Amino acid sequence: MKPYKSSSDKENCSPQSSNCVTWQGPNLSCINLCKGDSISDVVYKLALELCAIKDATDMSDIDFDCLLTGCTSTNDPEITVAGIIQLIIDNLCCSVTDLTSVTDELISKTDDLYEEPILVLPLCLQYIDPATGLAVTTLKLSDYAVLTAQAFCTLRNTVITQGNQIVDLDVRVTVLENDPGYVPPLVTPNCTYGTVIAGVPTEMNILLDNLDARICDFVTAIGDTTDITAAASSECNLLGSQTALSQVGTMATLPGWNIVINNMAQSMQNLWLTVCDMRAAMYDLKNCCDAADCSAFFLVYTANADITRANVTLIFNSGTVIPSGFTNCPGFSTVSITDGIGNTYTDTLDLIAVSTDPLGITYDVSLAFLNPAMPYTVTVTGCIIKDSNTCSKVVTNVIAPPTTTTTTTTSTTSTTTTTTTTTVACTCYSWSVSPNSADLADATGNTLSSNNGRVYVDYQDCDTTPFITISYTTSTIDQVLGCSCNIPYAYYFKNNVALPCTTGTLSLNGLCAL
Asked: Does the global pTM surpass 0.90?
């Protein structure tokens, strides 16, 4: 090959072989052409590719008869790629048109043959048509299917949401189950009260419960802040300006006197100063004005209970001395009888009359529900008065718990021993017990857990041991107690304090047949 620089100037160019001219373009992997190949190779490879394309696109042997006969409006195509593609598009459009026509014809025919059924909607799917405001209770099958599908989707979404919530709740419950919960800290108390022992570490909640109970007991015994304030404000009117009894000046001049009372401590301080002032004045009065009358007042008595311990007799004539001219105080003297577990009988006493009565005075204490198995503490506060001069004395006696008196006679031979026991006779009565459920429920807060939820009855058995204690944990009505020489005593414990049971717990059946 003899290349020329230009076809128009080929006579004047220097001949140059195409093998000597190189390709300086990029590598073309699709035709395996590399930079640096000779122009001869480049032209040769391009010619090969051109021939391959010509052979691949040769349509001289393609049969177009089926495309030409498919639609009556199709003309003979130009034998080119574009012509053939256009022929195919024309036939597709023609086929769609024919198919639509046939489909429309079939639909028109089937509309005459099939009528959709009307279905009744269940209550859960019935709704109000927003256009008419009327309830829709029936739908065609197709509409019914759509409505059902919509309802299903709604339910599905709800189930998915609830499923996610259940998973979340399950995780949270697992966390809560694995959490040991609140563990109250231990606190070392400085005092002993209730079930709390000083120096022993105790759970805070138990300590708080005991403190709460103690505060309630304190308020009950001392009074609340209103009561304390009222008591502190009960000082005699203008007491500070009153003349002192034991020295010159007013009460306000006494060392330590509180002019203004702001709390109970200040009120108590003034009270003690007043008492001391009165005592000093009374001492002076006693030394100068014949105190022999009160000094001659002696209060002496004996106290006894009968076998039932329902009656207590006090005899004063053996030792009580009333000085001449004295009479009973306006409120008389007082008598207090307690069993030491919270039950107390109180009454008044005409000390002038009983001081000379050899039979004394007898008190029926049965309604006080004293525990007959416990010692009775009798306290007499004697009060007599003469010419506005009052004498008062307090004397306490204890009636010991009852015991059984037994006489034993023994006779012995070489082979046998005979023992005879005699018990002091008493009148025996049959009793029944009906523990009250309220008492059983109230029996709580005891250090000894067996006292919780339990009612006790003490009585003196006529046949066996002197005193028997029976406990009950159910509220069964009319449980037979047995024969008793005394009035049985029913009680329970709350916060370690014995309390009498509700009236009606015990009922008398009558005399026992012994």
From this structure: no
